[in-house]
Amino acid sequence: MDLNVAARGALESYLAMRAPGYAILVDAPWGSGKTHFISKVCGVKTDPTVRYATLNGVADAAGFRRALLKGELGSGVLENGAWLGDTFGKLAKVGNIGTLARDIVEERLMEALPETLIFDDLERTAMTPELVFGLINDFVEHEGKRVILLVNSEKHPWKDKFLEKKEKLIGRTLRVEADMDAALPAFIKLMDEGRGKQYLKDHPDLIREVFEQAGHNNLRLLRNALREYALVLDRIEDALFEAQEPMARFTRTYLALAMALGKGEIAEEDLGRRADWKVFSPSEGEPHTFKTIMDRHQGADIMAGSGGTLSVALGQTLLGRGFVNEALLNLELRATGAFRKQEDNPLWLRMVKWREQPTEQLKDDIEAAKSYLFEKADIGTGPFLHIADNLMQIHVAAGQEDLATDLSEKCVARIHALGEKDYIPKARFGMEFGWSGELRRFSFGGYASEPSPHFMPLIVAMREQQLSRYERELQEEAEDLTLKIEEDFEHAGWKFVRNMAGPSFYDSPVLHLCDPKRIAIVVFDAISAGKQDEIGGFVTRLGERHSADNTWDDERKWAMSLRAELENLARSAGFVEQAQLAAFLEFYWKLTPPDTD
Question: How do strand 23-27 and strand 146-151 relate by DSSP bridges?
Fold first, then answer.
């Protein structure tokens, strides 16, 4: 749908007039697409009877004239005439005939201007409104030309004077709205062929919804965000696109944050605070702008909690630094655990939006929800909790409080039953549940709720089962980690760094279950091979996790064993190896001994 039908009709009627005797003003905010709209309606690039000029930075009548003539075929004549005149003047030892020649040629070209003149960026000129309107009035009153002026009056430095003076020249003022449907194909057409261009072309409704939720109506912000996002999509593996809902959520999140950055609502340094619940729900003072952005962008992972599609680290890299290599991009997306193959409108999302569903569709979804909760074994923790929560909400809204209570009890029992059979996924790293439940808020998939008394027992039960499985499988996790360290200690070292590739062992003890002899061999061999810096960085990361907040005595005892194993290896090898190990430990060893109190 063309949002600017009335403005288009008015312009077309004006363009059909001969010597209308007045100018038309198009007044719209920056980024609304008014220049593109006018160019398209007036045929700026194709119609020789139309001339476009920007007054951006123009300060006087001479600059106004040259802005109007800039780019004309005859402008080459101007430069040649000026050069020849300067040369002649120097030879004849007379004044600057080049400037005179330029003025003569410009006057000649001004007499041959086309019938329709478009002046853009009136708010960016250094001329006063009186001077601008005086220069333009000549074309309207004395030459009978059609004149179209483009301005964002809200940003005009002399706004009041501009609006007061315009009445003598302007016969009609048109408003232009940001028409995303008209602009989007043009944005996409300029992109290089690839996966990104095709994805954006296939999802106009998704882009429209994000743009409308943003509320700024600035197409320029959208264009810039889409251009960068297409390059990101080009580097994402095909398999991840099969996770349709997570990919849509990733799209919402990226575009929402990119436009907020472009508009100045948030700064680059704010991107590191997306996982901080206190930013979104502070105990004192006003919440951060992130809270406003999160509230308006439903379905986006603005708050980078557990189960989100855009981690804090990846958001900082993509949106802050502007680039991440393909391997790391896909590693971090997979590490979120969110990109599981699913349709674009899964059951859990339909249940979240139950209030908006057609009645018959909702009835079908309620039956599907019951089947998912009590018959499906391969569940997702976030989807299970959303479905149960919203089904209980429906019962409460229908006045069936007893059924909501009964459903709550049955769901808790079901969670325990699934947990006993290891159908409940473990809490990754002992803290990543695939959903968020902090400060009495539940969040998954970009949608949050305040847990009711019916829902809270489910959150507690799910967390317990996920932690229980994590504890049961921690020894296997430690064995797998040891293998990864033996294969590639540099890559494995990132599992001990905060905010890299999602959650990590930065806040979770695990080393005490690893074999210190095997790790010691890895460290010693690297030192012997001259890789002190590389293995030193790895050992440093292990120690940096230990602080006053992390009293992991089991890990600290393990560290003493590791050091003893290293010293044994060095003694067996010789005095040179002992010297190198001592120097290495003095510089890189950050692992502290257990408390002796």
Answer: parallel
3-state secondary structure 413-478: HHHHHHHHCCCCCCCECCCECCCEEECCEEEECCEEECCCCCCHHHHHHHHHHHHHHHHHCHHHHH
Check residue 99 and give its pLDDT.
54
**Separation CA 502–CA 307 (nearest Å):** 10
Handedness of CA 74, 77, 82, 85 (dihedral sign): negative
Residue 175 three-state SS: strand
Each residue of 546-581: pLDDT tens digit? 865 667 889 999 999 999 999 999 999 999 999 999
**Cα dihedral 39, 45, 51, 55 sign:** positive
**Which secondary structure element, helix H or strand E, spans residue 256, and what is its range?**
helix 244-263
Tell me, what DSSP letter sits at residue 298? T
Instruction: List the structure tokens of 108.
Output: 């000649």
Specify which residues 443 forms β-bridges with: 436, 448
> What average pLDDT does the structure give for the chain?
87
Q: How many residues does the chain have?
A: 597
The two tokens of residue 125 are 């000129």
Q: How far apart are CA 20 and CA 96, in angstroms?
A: 41
For residues 433 and 465, give the distance between their C-alpha atoms in angstroms, rounded to a whole number: 10
- Residues 441 and 51: their CA atoms lie apart, in Å, by 58
Is the Cα torsion angle 522, 527, 528, 529 positive or negative in sign? positive
Strand partners, 489: none
Helix 61-69 with 97-110: angle, nearest 10 deg: 60
When computed from its CA atoms, the radius of gyration of the chain, rounded to whole angstroms, is 33
Q: Does the pLDDT value for residue 542 go beyond 50?
A: yes
CB-neighbour burial class of residue 92 (10 A; exposed 0-12, middle 13-18, buried 19+): exposed
In the three-class reduction of DSSP (H, G, I as helix; E, B as strand; rest coil), residue 263 is classed as helix
Percent of the chain with pLDDT over 70: 90
Separation of alpha carbons 157 and 545, rounded Å = 54
